[in-house]
Design goal:
Beta-Lactamase, Alpha-Beta Plaits, five-stranded parallel β-sheet, about 25% strand
Length: about 675
Amino acid sequence: MTMNKLQDIIEVTQNLDVLFVEDDEETRKVIEHTLKIFFRNVYLAEDGEEGLHLFHLYSPKVVITDILMPRMGGLQMVKIIREIDPSVKVIIMTAYDESRYFMEAIEIGVDGFILKPIDSQRLIVALKKIADQIKEEGRAQHYYNQLQQYKEALEEGTIFGILGPHGEILDGNEQFCNLLGIKKEQLGKEDQNIQLYIHEEYRLQFMEIMKQIRILKKSWKGVLKIEGKNGNTYYLRTTLKPVEEEGELKVFSISFDITEIMKPRRLLIDFLRTKSRPVVALIEIENRENLFNYFLEEMINKLGEKLTKFIQSKIPEGRVFNLDNLQFAVAVSLDEIPYSQRELVERFKKLQQQIEQVSFPVGEVEYRLNTLFSVAGGKRGFDNARIGLSRLRQEKRKFIIATGLIEEEQKKAQRTLKILEILKEAIEHNQVLCFYQPIVDNRSGKIVRYEVLVRIRHRGEILSPFMFLEVARNTSYYAKITPIVLQEGFKLLQCNSDVKININLSAVDLEQEVIRKQLFQILEKHQEFLPRITFELVEDEEIKDQKLFLKHLNQLKELGIQLAIDDFGSGYSNFKRLLEYRPDYLKIDGSLIKNITTDPLSRSMVKSIVNFAQDVGIKTVAEFVENREIFEMVRELGIDYSQGYYFQRPEPLHCKDLKEMEEYVFSISNGEIESGTTGGSEGTN
């Protein structure tokens, strides 16, 4: 056999391992020397059992074995190996008198035979046969893989092209060429370097995508914005798939044209980016959720189409976009209209009136629509207008000029980050404090309990809750504040068995599982204090799950804790919830109390609340008692307890201060001394 042919065999086998199984030691040594010329690693075994063990350890791709051996024969071993890995190449060594084993070997599917006595020449001939098989299988696998890649590419899209590694067009189907306005015969020629023309706005991004494909050899999927030679712009939903062909990287581009069905939102943003002085009005149907609930999607879509045409007819110089879900946009370039921006705003206001004065058919129903209009100018007009819509919903307004709202939100975000830094620092350095404000029995003039109010000390200043608590509720820091307030309150309860405390409790405390579990764990560890604790329900936001909230309130009551409704008479509080919560106390909102001596309406409302509470056996507390005159009026109306600056501002309180505080407040209540803290109002937790 020539040296070239030997080299051909080695090229195939040099990266493979071989297992040689032979019970004759001398034969093993002779053949091992030859096998090491061809294979990366050679593993030797004296019988089938040892051979099988080595196969499990090293997974060689070629097995050469004798038939008859002690413990386990070669054919039995090969059967087991083939069950593990059918691709293993097997050569059987056999003598003439072992022909009875040929049929069994053929049934197993061995790849070659070597007649004994074995020598190097016979072995090399058998190895050449194996090498040729492996080479053919590799070539077939390569073609199969390539066909699979072509198949996958063609199945993923309808517009097919082949790109070079830097975006040059090498080939493409008819649809691809027609879209780009090029001729197929131009492609693939060395003197023709036709580039896929990506829109300038996305060109750098595309080159980065191609770079990543070259480096990582991974597919990319997304939307490409390209331009044909005719100047038209197309949006293509595209898959770029790298394929190796004879060592050369090509990129299969599989796309389908989505220009006609491109989301209006993207088209709107493109419009705003390409104009020097754009203005956009975002229009939203107010309470659109009701329409979604009452009408089929088909009817909603028809309503959207009618509104789009109506808006376009009223602002013909603008471009109208139906953004789906009954949201619309009107985009106008100030450079392309014969009137000013102020006049344009007036036209938008008139458009709002026109929409709301017309009845639109929805199915068989004539429907009058209410709208929200958010108008903003500039390149960031869309983002500003979106924030404007959100603000309209929050503030229950209908029209807003939203230009510049992003900057406002950024400043707000910066303030929020600053507050979060302060919160983090306060928690880490034990600067979360508790102040206490007495609640006074209006009959006896004595302190009956203290409200625990959270504060933060920051660089020598005391920060009230309104500066940080709302921000904290949306972070993990809030869960760390609640235990601090409870633990500080327990310290005061340990001072005296007669002391009672009030602690504020919001919907967040009970609705967020982490905070709720933490709250109940702390309470269960201090059960001896629970009958002396009242939780004040702060209803500063809508409760998401009323049934679940009530369940947790009842669990608190079962622990012996009393409940109070804070700020009753304002915000979310109402008599229905009063009946649901069954509180022990009502804290009448301070905005009513502070005007009680000057405003007959406030006085009448307070009187109604007190009468109701007395009828159902609920005690009442007046907040914001700022002076003697208010205190006297509160007592006259039959309110049970008072709290406010007239008695004492919130301040730190220690065991040694309790007696002095009680005597001081008692003297003020009975008019023996004048209050030193009139004016203002008490803090809230």
